[in-house]
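Anyone able to model this chain together with adenosine monophosphate?
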Amino acid sequence: MTSFREFSQACKLIEETPGSLDMTSLVADLLSRVTPEELPVITHFVMGEVFPAWSNEEIGVGAGILYAALARSSGLSVSQIEDLVKETGDIGKTAARALDRKSKGQATFSSFLTEEHELSILEVFQRFQAISKASGKGSQAARIKNLQYLFNSASSEEVGYIARLALEDLRIGVGEGIVRDAIGAAFDVPPEIVERGFMLTNDLGLVASTARQGGTEAVSALGLQLFRPIRMMLAQVIPTLEAALLDIGEAVIEWKFDGARVQIHKEGDKVKLYSRRLEDISNSLPDIVASVRKYVHADSAILDSEAVAIDENGRPRAFQDILKRFRRKYDVHSTAKEIPLTLNIFDIMYLNGESLIDEPLVKRRELLASCVENSDSVIQVDRQVITADPEVIDTVYSEALKAGHEGIMIKNPQSPYSPGKRGRNWLKKKPLMETLDLAVVGAEWGYGRRTSFMGSYALACHDPETGRFLPVGKVATGFSDEQLAELTELFSDHIIMESGTKIELRPEIIFEIAFEEIQKSSNYESGYALRFPRLVNVRDDKSLEDVDTIGRLEEMYRMQRERN
Ligand code: AMP
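re: yes, here you go
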């Protein structure tokens, strides 16, 4: 049996370790130390998860419940706890401080308890399970009581990690990549086999247990399972149509519907729907469940689709409307009437007991068409064109945009279904997305042909609260040589400091930047980074007041996550 104290000590060590290789070996060490029963639990805990993403269990603890439990355990008021949160900026430190004050001030239940009773990892997990199961009247009180028990039983080094875990925000920098490699290292399984097992089962806890029990062979044998969603295959932005066609040759062209992703699992009359984040959304979408029962003729199947909310003119409604449907817990039937959804099915991964993910797309499509009965404005297999002719592709693209959709998907007809992969087999072509106006706060001298030019520019958003500019990344794409020469001259008046090839610039010039997505990142002070940023325009018509704020980035990030 492993104590929660040992886990906390491991977390502290990991938190203080800068390199991901060292972190991986610390995690591997932790995974190989615990008992078989503890292994799946600890695998999730170390990533700041309590339950696997696909399961229906949710801990459901928000800041309110946590503050109330901390207040009760420490004897402080909730507003004192809130002040501590503001002061420390971290719930873990808040918990440690609040409970530390208490132990100094008075002899308490906990001080008696800690003498003889040491919390085990499984005990913490069981309390979290009890919290997740609490429902109905009195559930709030039950959640608080269970947390209070944990806080009262924990030592000061443990309470911080309990508080952070309860919010599923452990902040020790361990993500899926590190855990995947750690499982590989701990149980001697190649990381790509661990990765594949993970993409198919979506549960690193299960992969870890399988690796421990049966090594590489057992992990390789992990497969699709009905009612356990698999990671969605993802799309890359198309470089250019010419390059894509050169790569793929004849390509499958489909509309890129403006809706939300739904993975469908069906066995007999049992139907479950999962969102892109693999949450079970079946209860919110009873109309879709009914259509799948009626129009999908298969004993068992796993399908991939896009649900679209259509207005009275047959055009897609705002994305927020679909979200309303996905999030709805009550009055689901009346919301379904208000915002009807159409299901466009574009792939099939499993049919009548057989996995199809290694079959080529064309074969999967044949099988898909054979088991889905199209029914107008309720459910259909999306139309596709197979062509290498750029003119035909352009026509489909403009039809899709005219119908109010996002653009087109260009798929490799021979490609397997690659769970969780953003590869070249699925490309998306859509008009440029929203751009950000960012201040240029630094640059770097180029190399090779571009040594006399500033070749890469550091970008920052604005923090209205402090008035500071917070870095969000660099842009080095989207410039012609001529433009680089002009910009180098323009910026030479704005240099504050130079060291080596690095230049600090006074923020004065604004770049309009397009990008593929916003990511969380600890590399930049804003806490965000842009994926594939490229210069759209130098906005000399704009001034520093026009620079996008950190608030807008946060908002765009949130929207993007919801959309995903
Ligand atoms: P993006 O969200 O921009 O990365 O684009 C990929 C998303 O487009 C997928 O996750 C689906 O939700 C959506 N999509 C719409 N139509 C299709 C389609 N025909 N094939 C695949 N994905 C589609």
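The two ends are 39 Å apart (CA to CA).
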